[in-house]
Design brief:
Length: 54
């Protein structure tokens, strides 16, 4: 999963050991499928665990 901040263009991901319920089975997504979300779709309480992608 890739999370993009549309205001800054910053890209983030969850750590490999992260587990979250965002209303859809993200953890069960196919490894061959790219999931892109915008930062505003991530609950505020989970944003502190995001890791910046460089």
């Amino acid at each position: 999963m890739l999370i993009v901040d549309p205001a800054t263009g910053g890209m983030f991901k969850f750590p490999e050991d992260a587990s979250a319920d965002m209303g859809q089975p993200v953890a069960q997504a196919s490894k061959n499928k790219m999931v892109v979300m915008t930062l505003d779709q991530i609950p505020e309480n989970l944003r502190s665990s995001l890791v910046q992608v460089r």
